[in-house]
Design goal:
It is found in: Membrane. This is Protein HflC. Belongs to the band 7/mec-2 family. HflC subfamily. HflC and HflK could regulate a protease. The structure is a single chain. By secondary structure, this protein is an alpha+beta fold. Helix content is about 55%, strand content about 20%. Strands 2, 3, 4 and 6 form a 4-stranded antiparallel sheet that branches. Helix 3 packs across helix 5 and helix 6 crosses helix 7. The longest helix has about 70 residues.
Length: about 300
C-alpha cells in the first residue's frame, strides 16, 4: 500500500514537473503540439509565452525557446561591382530581431539561428549588390553612402518578413578598393606627384638661374664700380703725392736729392749677394765720395 502511494506521488510529481516550464528574460517561448506550432484559439497567431513561469500539457506540448533580443549580423567582407564595372571591398553589418516567432521557426528549420543568418546574409548581399551596382565609386564614397544603406534597409524589410525577421538597421563599416586597384591608383598618384615635383624642381632651377644671373650681374657691376673708384682714388693719390714731392723738392732740392740717393743705395745693396759693376766716377756714388754731394 505504501509502495503504491509512493509510486502515485512520484508520478504526480513527474507530471507536475514536466508540465511546468520557465521562459527567462530576453527569450520567448512557442509551444509545439505534435510538431505543429500551437496557435491562439480562433486566430492564426502563435501562442507566444512571455518571460515567466508557464504550464503545458505533458507528453503532448513541446516548448521551443527563441532569443527575442536584438541580434547583430556582422557580415563577412565581400566584393561588389559598381555601375562603372569597378570592384569595391565592403564591410557591413545588420541589426535584426525576430518579429514573427512562428514564421521564424518554420522558415529556419525549427528556429536554427545559423540557418536564419545564412538566409538573411543572402538577402543582404543581394540588396547591397543591387544598390551599389546602380552607383559609381564617387557616389558611394563621397555622399550617397547613407542613401545606399536606407535603400538596402527598405529592400530587406520586405524580403526579411518572409523569415519572420525584422531588420532594424544596415550599416556599411568600411569601403576599400581591391589590392590590385589600390596599387595601380597608388602608382598613378605617385607618378602624378613625381611629375609635379619634377616640374617644381625645374621651375626652382630656372628661378635659381635667374637669381644667380642677377646676383652675378650686380657683383660684376659692383666690382667694376669699385675698380673705377679705386683707380680714381689711386690717381688722385698719385697726383697728391707728386704734388707733395714737387713741393718738398722745391723747398730743399739738395736734401731731397740726398734722400733719394740714400733710398737708391738701400734698395741696391739690400740683397747682399748681388754684384753690381758701376764706374766710381758716376753720379750714383757722389754722396759716397763726398757727403756734401758736391760735384767734383
Amino acid at each position: 500500500m505504501k509502495k503504491g502511494l509512493l509510486v502515485i506521488v512520484a508520478l504526480v510529481a513527474i507530471a507536475l514537473y514536466s508540465s511546468v516550464f520557465v521562459v527567462v528574460e530576453g527569450e520567448r517561448g512557442i509551444v509545439l503540439q505534435f510538431g505543429k506550432v500551437k496557435r491562439e484559439q480562433g486566430t492564426e497567431l502563435p501562442t507566444l509565452y512571455e518571460p515567466g513561469l508557464h504550464f503545458k500539457v505533458p507528453m503532448i506540448d513541446q516548448v521551443r525557446k527563441l532569443d527575442a533580443r536584438l541580434q547583430t549580423l556582422d557580415d563577412q567582407v565581400d566584393r561588389f561591382v559598381t555601375s562603372e564595372k569597378k570592384d569595391l571591398i565592403i564591410d557591413s553589418y545588420v541589426k535584426w530581431r525576430i518579429d514573427n516567432f512562428a514564421t521564424y521557426y518554420l522558415a529556419t528549420g525549427g528556429g536554427n539561428r545559423l540557418q536564419a543568418e545564412n538566409l538573411l546574409r543572402r538577402r543582404i548581399n543581394n540588396s547591397l549588390r543591387s544598390e551599389i551596382g546602380s552607383r559609381t565609386i564617387r557616389d558611394i564614397v563621397s555622399g550617397e553612402r547613407g542613401d545606399v544603406m536606407e535603400s538596402a534597409l527598405r529592400g530587406l524589410l520586405e524580403s526579411s518578413s518572409e523569415l519572420g525577421i525584422k531588420v532594424l538597421d544596415v550599416r556599411i563599416k568600411q569601403i576599400n578598393l581591391p589590392t590590385e586597384v589600390s596599387n595601380s591608383i597608388y602608382q598613378r598618384m605617385r607618378a602624378e606627384r613625381t611629375a609635379v615635383a619634377r616640374e617644381h624642381r625645374s621651375e626652382g632651377r630656372e628661378q635659381a638661374e635667374i637669381i644667380k644671373a642677377g646676383a652675378d650681374r650686380r657683383v660684376t657691376v659692383m666690382i667694376a664700380d669699385a675698380q673705377r673708384n679705386s683707380r680714381t682714388l689711386r690717381g688722385e693719390g698719385d697726383a697728391q703725392a707728386a704734388t707733395i714731392y714737387a713741393q718738398a723738392y722745391a723747398a730743399d732740392p739738395d736734401f731731397f736729392s740726398f734722400i733719394r740717393s740714400l733710398e737708391a743705395y738701400r734698395k741696391s745693396f739690400e740683397q747682399g749677394g748681388d754684384l753690381m759693376i758701376v764706374k766710381p766716377e758716376g753720379d750714383f756714388f757722389r754722396y759716397l765720395k763726398d757727403p756734401s754731394g758736391q760735384a767734383q
